[in-house]
Hints:
The protein is of the alpha+beta class.
Amino acid sequence: MTTVVKGGFEIDFLMLVAAIGAAILGSWAEGALLLFLFSLGHALEHYAMGKARKSIAALANLAPPTALVLRNGQTSEVGIAELVIGDIILVKPNTKIPADGVVVKGTGSVNQAPITGESVPVEKTAVPHANIDYSKEAKIDARYRVFAGTINGASALEIKVIREAQDSTISRLIKMVNEAEQQKSPTQLFTDKFEKIFVPAVLILVGLLCLAFLVIDEPFSKSFYRAMAVLVAASPCALAISTPSAVLSGVARAARAGVLIKGGGPLEDWAHSALWPSIKQARLPKASPNSPTLFL
C-alpha cells in the first residue's frame, strides 16, 4: 500500500481491488478464494527462494569452522575467523583445508573439486621460500596454492595463511552469488516497466466499465460485475511471481554445481546461447579431467 501512496502500482494491487470488489458484490467466498490462490502463489515463491538460499548457505559449509594453528611451537584449535595472514596451520590427512594459503611443509594431493570443479586431485608441494609474504603476490604457482574448502589427501600439510576468512575464495564466491541474486534479469526489468503502465491502464478500464450502465441499459450491479471480471482476468500474476523465484533458484542451483552466474541477465543469455552444448561436445569426447568452474 505504501507503494501505491507514493504513486507506484504493482500487479498485487489489482488482486486486492478485485477482492474488495467481490466483497462489495457480496461474493465473499469468491473473494476469499481469490486471495487464497494469490497468497498460495506468494507462499510457493518464498518456498522456492528459501530452498535457493539454503543452497547458497551450503557453500559456506564447505570450509571447516576451526583450524589447527601452530603458534610458538604449540598447536591449538581456533575458529577460522581468528586466523590472520601469516599463520601456519596444520591440515591432517583427509580433512578440509580451512583457509586459503600456500604449502610450506609437506607434499601431497588435494581434492579441489568443491572449488574449481577439477575431478582429479592436484599435487601440492612446499614453496621454496616460506618466509615470503605470499599474500601480496599477484600470481602464485598452482603447485603451492591451496583453497579453503578443498580436501587434503593422505599426507599432512603445513599451510601458511594468505587470506583471512572473510576474503577467502569461498567467501568471495558466496558474496558474488548473493550479489547475483539482487541483479534483475531482462525479464524482471521488463515486468517492472510493464506493470507501471499496465496496472494504471487496467484500473482506468475497470473504472470506465463500472460506468457502462450510463451508456447501455443495464443496472449498475451488472456493469460492476463485468468490471470485476475484467480486473481478475487482466492480472498477470504468474509473470510477476514466477520470474524472480526462477532466477534465484537457477543462480543458486548453478552455484551448487560449481557454475557461478553473475545475475539474471547472464542466466537468460546463457539459456539462449550455444555455449553450453559446445562445451559438452568439446569436452566429453576427450574425457578431460580438467573441469574448472565457469564464471558467466
